[in-house]
Amino acid sequence: MEHLHILMILLLYFPIVLYCSTNKVGALDSNTDREALLHFKNMVYDPRKALSGWNSSSSHCTWFGVSCTNGDNRVSSLSLAGLGLSATAIPSQLSNLSTLTVLNLSHNLFYGQIPEEFSQLTLLQSIILGTNSINGTIPVGLSQCYGLRVIHLENNQLTGNLPSELGNLSRLEVLDVSMNNLTSIIPPTFGNLTSLSFLALARNQQDPKFYLQHVFIGLTDNDLSGELQTDIWTSLQQIFLANNKLDSFIPGSLSNASQIQQLDLSSNNLQGTLPLLGNMKNLVKLNLGVNNLFSTTELNLQVMNSLSNCTQLEYLMLNSNRLAGELPSSVANLSTNLKEFCLDDNFLSGRFPQGFERFQNLMALPIHKNSFTSEIPSSIGKLRNFRYLRRKETGSLDQFRKYLVILQDYIFLHWDITSSLVEFQ
Ligand SMILES: *[C@@H]1O[C@H](CO)[C@@H](O)[C@H](O)[C@H]1NC(C)=O
Ligand SMILES: *[C@@H]1O[C@H](CO)[C@@H](O)[C@H](O)[C@H]1NC(C)=O
Ligand SMILES: *[C@@H]1O[C@H](CO)[C@@H](O)[C@H](O)[C@H]1NC(C)=O
Ligand SMILES: *[C@@H]1O[C@H](CO)[C@@H](O)[C@H](O)[C@H]1NC(C)=O
Ligand SMILES: *[C@@H]1O[C@H](CO)[C@@H](O)[C@H](O)[C@H]1NC(C)=O
Ligand SMILES: *[C@@H]1O[C@H](CO)[C@@H](O)[C@H](O)[C@H]1NC(C)=O
Ligand SMILES: *[C@@H]1O[C@H](CO)[C@@H](O)[C@H](O)[C@H]1NC(C)=O
Ligand SMILES: *[C@@H]1O[C@H](CO)[C@@H](O)[C@H](O)[C@H]1NC(C)=O
Ligand SMILES: *[C@@H]1O[C@H](CO)[C@@H](O)[C@H](O)[C@H]1NC(C)=O
Ligand SMILES: *[C@@H]1O[C@H](CO)[C@@H](O)[C@H](O)[C@H]1NC(C)=O
């Protein structure tokens, strides 16, 4: 019993003692923070004397650009952007600031490489080194700074690949490595960066092409503008680029994205014609709504024919574009999994196609704000799951009838489940 007790104590305490004793050099405190900062000052050319107040007459926590955590005078933030600071290397002593969460040295003239020792900054959340003259590769060790949310390395002279290990940074939200000389390969591990909301890669070695090999890209609600880059689609499964300012044509190479399951490019300003996406055999959701895409009767035929290859398709949103001409009867060959098919707010005309009784899963078919000449085929009344031709309408049927009279081309259908009443016009 006694022995067991001792053994347990050993098991409980020995590893910790061992750990501490092997880390003697890492006895970092506010004094080593202060030394590290003074060392930094000595290494850096400071033409505007921004660091002149960094001297022994005051606590380093009061120094310009330095913030400390409450209580223990450990440095939590070092923010010295745009001060004309210059050095042949980013002083590696900064890695002694082991409680650092923010390092912002952007818009200066730092040369040399990002110190490997930064891997010791395990509490780091933001590393902002953009617009300097930093060269070499992105250190793999950064992937050990597990708290990193923001990495700004844009506008430097970095070379090499994006380390696949960065895919371990599960909290990463922002990665800007644009305007460097990186080779254009995004590691597959980046598919694990599910918090990533901003990924900027433009203007690197193979400008403007960056080969995306990972399975997910989520950049919705950003200020991404300009072109949809070509050749980036090869093995992507999900692309969410909605609510940006993309204003290019949809590149033909997108049709090569044969693995795509979800493609949401809605609410941009995409130009040109509706794309042909017949290679996307796994496509479940296609949202091209609220753009500036146009079509003709002939193109509608091609598009619907090509989409008939997408047998998994459930959501097809083409609303609020400039689609014109007639819809082909081959619309009826779209996937029988179709749940929502949004065509509203376009310039479509002619007879509305027949054959919708195939779509037993269809729930919504908003087609208002078009110029269809015929009534909706009564077959839609046979769809078991059907709710609305126009979604998000509330109120009684009587109100809707009034609405119908006012808007000539507004076609509404409501299937009241309780009474099996079908109304359409
Ligand atoms: C030290 O810094 C303070 C400002 O923080 C400044 O007033 C003082 O002149 C400096 N002393 C020396 C010796 O540079
Ligand atoms: C870095 O610091 C500068 C100057 O304080 C600031 O304008 C900039 O927003 C900071 N960068 C980031 C990404 O926080
Ligand atoms: C601070 O960093 C330097 C260089 O990286 C190192 O030699 C030194 O031992 C560190 N100081 C402490 C107290 O760990
Ligand atoms: C990076 O820049 C420094 C200073 O300009 C230079 O000495 C070094 O050779 C460069 N390293 C690489 C890998 O380009
Ligand atoms: C980080 O990622 C690499 C390769 O992407 C992987 O081999 C490694 O096990 C990961 N390391 C940790 C600590 O998660
Ligand atoms: C970028 O890399 C290429 C090939 O490695 C090299 O030829 C070129 O000089 C580099 N450009 C810059 C600006 O460093
Ligand atoms: C993503 O992370 C999981 C678990 O951390 C790992 O098993 C998987 O290999 C990673 N995927 C990629 C593409 O790195
Ligand atoms: C699709 O990919 C192949 C092979 O990479 C390429 O030759 C072809 O041009 C691509 N198609 C389009 C439309 O970009
Ligand atoms: C549909 O898929 C078949 C078989 O892969 C292919 O030959 C055909 O070109 C595709 N059709 C369209 C319209 O893309
Ligand atoms: C639907 O597809 C079948 C087989 O490809 C074809 O024979 C038929 O004509 C198509 N229907 C319409 C309405 O295009």
TrEMBL record:
It comes from the Eukaryota. GO terms for cellular component: membrane. One of its GO terms (molecular function) is ATP binding. SUPFAM superfamilies: L domain-like. Pfam families: LRR_1, LRR_8, LRRNT_2. Residues 1-19 form the signal peptide. Residues 30-69 form the Leucine-rich repeat-containing N-terminal plant-type domain. It is a single-pass type I membrane protein. Belongs to the RLP family. This is Leucine-rich repeat-containing N-terminal plant-type domain-containing protein. It comes from Nyssa sinensis.
